[in-house]
Design a protein that fits this description.
The structure is a homodimer. Chain A is an alpha+beta fold. Chain A has a single domain (about 1-85), classed as Orthogonal Bundle (Arc Repressor Mutant, subunit A). Helix content of chain A is about 60%, strand content about 15%. Chain A has five helices and three strands, in the order H-H-E-H-H-E-E-H. A three-stranded antiparallel β-sheet of chain A has the order 1-3-2. In chain A, a hairpin with a 5-residue loop joins strand 2 (about 55-60) and strand 3 (about 65-70). The longest helix of chain A has 20 residues, at about 75-90. Chain A is globular and about 50 Å long. Chains A, B: InterPro entries: HTH_HxlR, WH-like_DNA-bd_sf, WH_DNA-bd_sf. Chains A, B: Keywords: DNA-binding, Transcription, Transcription regulation. Chains A, B: It holds the Pfam family HxlR. Chains A, B: It comes from Chryseobacterium paridis.
Chain lengths: ~100, ~100
């Protein structure tokens, strides 16, 4: 378990993986969708996730340059488990009803 | 997902839950089994896990006093998902063969 948490340990990585989901998405979209992370931290976390083989990064030589991120099969596998975590959380920690 | 990570976000909690597993266990045993956490941090994390209803704490009025921790049904539910995470990690990040 210690090794597992080391590879996905920071609280950001699960949220980034969940935000990317099953689509192909750009840095700016991830940043906007998350809204709670700095560009510096997001850049570092994305770099680590690429190094860990959880997401793939594709750069298009255009002007301005376009970079897109997609979950790898390994990432999709992890997303499935992260989805179970949110179901667990919704079941056990339901959001208070909106007044 | 952000709420989910907030409730189980620190890297310690999953490891503590995994260490307790399906048994009833004392502070000293958790501390010894984990070996990589300070007593102060373990005490704080256990307190939060009790407050979150993930583990239960039972104190026995003996000399010396005995305190035991057990996963609640909510904790057992989470343990099941954490087990999937370790399976995912072993599948995708196999430990290098011992030389």
């Amino acid at each position: 378990m210690t090794r597992t948490m080391a590879s996905i340990g920071t609280k950001w990585k699960p949220i980034i993986i969940y935000t990317i989901g099953k689509r192909t998405i750009r840095f700016g979209q991830i940043y906007a969708l998350m809204g709670i992370i700095s560009k510096k931290v997001l850049t570092e976390q994305l770099k680590e996730l690429v190094e860990d083989g959880i997401i793939s990064r594709e750069k298009f030589d255009e002007l301005p340059p376009r970079v897109e991120y997609t979950l790898t099969p390994k990432g999709i596998d992890l997303l499935r488990i992260l989805n179970m975590l949110t179901i667990w959380n919704d079941k056990h920690n339901p959001e208070p009803a909106q007044k």
